[in-house]
Amino acid sequence: PIAPPEQPTKMTTPENPRIIALFDVDGTLTIPRGEITDSMMEFMQSLSKKITVGIVGGSDLPKQEEQLGKGVVDKFPYNFSQNGLVAYKNGELLEVQTISKFLGEENLKRIVNWALRYIADLDIPVKRGTFVEFRSGMLNISPIGRNCSRPERNDYEKFDLENDVRKTMVAKMREEFADLGLTYSIGGQISFDVFPAGWDKTYCLRFVKEEEFDEVHFFGDKTFEGGNDYEIYSSERTVGHTVTSPEDTREQCTKLFMS
């Protein structure tokens, strides 16, 4: 008889379903901005026969799929992109949260209008375009504008460090928008992010129900203060593990869960 066509891998119940391990993507399952290797993906699938596995990345789902493969939401029981603002359980979409839904259009306009006025009056050597970039989970604000060239970006970073352009702007926004409960994160060379407090990786924990799990482990590489894994790593709900590479992740998980 002709063999039936292969079914997509259905998620099987692991041996220890009440232990969950959540994994950062960049630097934990893949090299930074890289794609997962076949052997690492095989390892993760064998791990998910032992315990419940979840992915929690800061990027949006299309970027996560570039790194972990198409249909990643069907590979593991829990999948969180944008720190859990887009949440899947067993391949089903649970929730999509956005900054516009959360703050409301009036407040969003307040922030955008204020930022554009502030940047208009800034005296910096170069200004280009895209000063405010709207992303579903945050606003990214750049005094020079995101579409500057690489040399302009490098020069601006030096100028910013010497003159505290972003630091000063953030301090003024904290005062101006104290009523909105926002977090400001200065990262990279030219911009800073603005998002509601608590929208770091701990956001995903609201979908990991306490009554369903005895242990919640988290593996990530940026677990230092200021790193984007820090809050979930140090949360009282998780047992945090710092990793240095996908190989290290594999080694630590083998010791903890496979022996």
Topology, element by element:
Blueprint: E1 16-23, H1 38-50, E2 51-56, H2 61-68, E3 78-81, E4 86-89, E5 92-96, H3 99-103, H4 105-120, E6 132-135, E7 138-141, H5 150-163, H6 165-176, E8 182-187, E9 191-196, E10 215-220, H7 230-233, E11 239-242, H8 246-258
In short:
By secondary structure, the protein is α/β, with parallel strands linked by helices. It is 33% helix and 22% strand.
Could you walk me through the main structural features you see in this protein, from its secondary elements to its overall organization?
With 259 residues, the chain is α/β, with parallel strands linked by helices. 33% of the residues lie in helices and 22% in strands. The chain contains eight helices and eleven strands. It has helices spanning 38-50, 61-68, 99-103, 105-120, 150-163, 165-176, 230-233, 246-258, and strands at 16-23, 51-56, 78-81, 86-89, 92-96, 132-135, 138-141, 182-187, 191-196, 215-220, 239-242. The strands form two sheets. The chain has a seven-stranded mixed beta sheet.
